[in-house]
Amino acid sequence: MSPRYACTANPAPELFNTEKLGMNSDALIKDFKRYYGTHLAQDKGCASGHYLYSSLALTLRDRLFNRMKHTKHTYAEKQCKHAYYLSMEFLMGRAMGNAVLNLGLEKETTKALNELHLNFEDLIEMEHDAGLGNGGLGRLAACFIDSCATLQLPVTGYGLRYEYGMFQQRIENGFQVEKPDHWLQDGNPWELERPEFTQRVKFGGHTEYHPTDSGDMKVHWVNTNDVLAIPFDLPIPGYQNGTVNVLRLWKAGATDEFNLEDFNSGSYTEAVAAKNEAENISMVLYPNDASENGKELRLRQQYFLASASLQDILDYWVTTHGESFDNFAEKNCFQLNDTHPTVAVAELMRLLMDEHGLGWEKAWEITSSTMAYTNHTLLPEALERWPVNMFGRLLPRILEIIYEINARFLREVATRWPGDKARLARMSIIEEGGEKQVRMAHLAIVGSFSINGVAALHSELLKKGLFHDFYELWPHKFNNKTNGVTQRRWLAWCNPDLSELITDTIGDNWITQLTELKKLEAYAHDKAFQKKWHAAKLANKQRLAKLVKDSCGVEFNPEAMFDIQVKRIHEYKRQLLNILHVIHLYDRIKRGDTKNMTPRCVLFGGKAAPGYVMAKRIIKLINNVASTVNNDPDVGDLLKVVFLPNYQVSAMEVICPAADLSEQISTAGKEASGTGNMKFMMNGAMTIGTLDGANIEIRDEAGAENFFLFGLTEDEVTELKPTYNPRFIIDNDADLKRVVNLLESGHFNQCEEGAFDDIIAAFTSPNDPWMTVADFHSYVEAQQRAAEVYQDKERWIAMSIMNSANSGMFSTDRTMEEYNNDIWKLEKINPRF
Ligand SMILES: *Cc1c(COP(=O)(O)O)cnc(C)c1O
């Protein structure tokens, strides 16, 4: 730590009193004016939105930081157990609306701004999304910490402060084009830099063993290239309860002496280059969703997060409890969001042994009783493995520890299953044969006392398949925690019209007790209520239609069925199946088969990983089909198709309230949970979906009659696989045959010969892992059922109400209660602010 931040002065105690700031419009106006006129020194002539936005953000932030300090003091006073959520991604989106809602300042803020002749919505729109995540996994982390604060659980999030978040997607000539997302360009008023808590993270070098006075060996990791980790704190407010937790994000920086050495030897430019190398660690988020990357920089990022966070936590422990770690495990718990931060298992061992002098047994007892691991996917391509060579070069001490963990673990396996060599090889943390690899999932399982999947089916499949050996060894470690979403952002904030109707009808307890929505069932067939429900949906559809018009130039008729699939573009999510159905509808229209056809507006959105060629081709196909369909005078208002560019959290806030039909059509057994499905359900959309991930639970809750089910089950997929013959299916399905003929004839190619050959080859291959063709017929039938029901307005609205009414269990408040009851076991703390 720089001496600048050492505690030197001893000021009057009153300096540390937390001032209670006014929560009415007058107080807000006073602060807003001071920020605008004095702090930001804005003058007459021009009122740029940026400074107005900043002034409001700073006004709110003061109120958040006061509560954050107070919450922290309360936790310290109570000496309560604390959980830490370690995640490489936090897909936070915008902070302002959430701050206003959770501070209970909606009315007063609007009033204050009106008095200043300003519009709240305009300021909201000024904020750049914090896109520090890829998709579901990162958004889940954001919903989790929101719910923890609302439940008053002492939970801190730890992540990376990427300079560049998820890329901005543009569509040019139908192709995805990636633009860097320099989200911090105009500053970030929601963060507070805390240089006084800077940590040092080691890379490279080698280990030396020195005997201590007591005769033990002490390990020194020396000759390292150190990088500084500088924390930035973001306030995470609970819902109107005085609690504000912390999300601490690390930025990488160069150490002083590193630069100084090179500078003294006269190589100024090398010194600057070295600085760059250090700062690179937190420069950019890897834009791969559900596939591993394997790049050394990614491993650097992972260790940087794990090491900085654990050092920070241990420093806090030592300042509050001294060097005894006897009850550390009673007071601390770490939740690993997928394998990304799993190197924390070995890092905690290192810190406890090498830095705090504990022996192996004691350190292992602490580590293996404080680490908990959440698995997010069964896809083999997502399982992280690091080449042992690279690992050893970058983190030599950590690799030694992993080898020791593995040796002891394999002894346990050998004792349980004597002579079972194959099992040892399967379970080993080190994969032999070819280039040796460290299997991060195995390290996570061995090092954790809890392993959970994210939906009922997913957790069962983990035990049955991927982690079966481990389940046999440690059945007690395995559990399920079905995902959720926070209803504060995904209903209360993003759908004000519907929220108001719900609150007028059943009161506002649903904002913190989502199962209260069940009371809406009584109104599902109430004509007056239905009318209001429909009016809210229509207004939301108009809002989305405007967004579509502005960004795609296509007119969506709000009376038509809004059929929506937004999520990362991935073959397993089967956007391809959806577009094949669109082509089928287009084909029907061209053939004049339009009797009783339900007009539809189909919206796609989502980003493809920049290196994922097939996913990018699918985007191109969607865009080409869209332009053919939208420009064909025969089609008219019966069918519209758009690909909405740059799908992100703030876009979803407009999209999910406006959906009639939510597309959740992954190949059964491939989607771990899904959370987009839950946002749609909460906002009264009907799901068309397979029995996959949380869809199964959604259907159980909504009732089978309020869900459009189609497709093979996971068992059927497995069973069909060996004899799968898509060409045969196509030849025997007239609808599908015409769709494939249109594609093969180049009808959507727009003068680009062979543009979709790879796509055709993929879905017609007997080895197609996603079995798109197998589900086509069943999908078209389900779509037809949905289209027919949509024409029966009253029935559709009743079903819409039933979906919302039964979405209670998909709140992350429920999910977090379960994590806490089964894994963390934290005491809820009310800071009474
Ligand atoms: C909810 C959400 C996701 C996850 O969607 P799935 O359909 O579950 O894959 C991804 N990205 C954003 C921006 C989201 O809001």
Automatic annotation (TrEMBL):
Q: Give the catalytic activity.
A: [(1->4)-alpha-D-glucosyl](n) + phosphate = [(1->4)-alpha-D-glucosyl](n-1) + alpha-D-glucose 1-phosphate
Q: Does the keyword Cytoplasm apply?
A: no
The cofactors it requires, by name, are: pyridoxal 5'-phosphate
Write down the EC number: 2.4.1.1
Residue numbers bearing the N6-(pyridoxal phosphate)lysine modification: K679
Gene Ontology CC annotations of this record? cytoplasm
What is the uppermost EC class here?
transferase
UniProt KW keywords:
Allosteric enzyme, Carbohydrate metabolism, Glycosyltransferase, Pyridoxal phosphate, Transferase
Q: Does the keyword Glycosyltransferase apply?
A: yes
Which Gene Ontology biological process is one annotated for this entry? glycogen catabolic process
Which InterPro entries does the protein's record reference?
Answer: Glycg_phsphrylas, Glyco_trans_35, Pyridoxal_P_attach_site
Alphabetical list of Pfam families matching this protein: Phosphorylase (PF00343)
Protein role: Phosphorylase is an important allosteric enzyme in carbohydrate metabolism. Enzymes from different sources differ in their regulatory mechanisms and in their natural substrates. However, all known phosphorylases share catalytic and structural properties. Allosteric enzyme that catalyzes the rate-limiting step in glycogen catabolism, the phosphorolytic cleavage of glycogen to produce glucose-1-phosphate, and plays a central role in maintaining cellular and organismal glucose homeostasis.
Q: Describe the family membership recorded for this protein in Swiss-Prot or TrEMBL.
A: Belongs to the glycogen phosphorylase family.
For this entry, the protein name equals Alpha-1,4 glucan phosphorylase
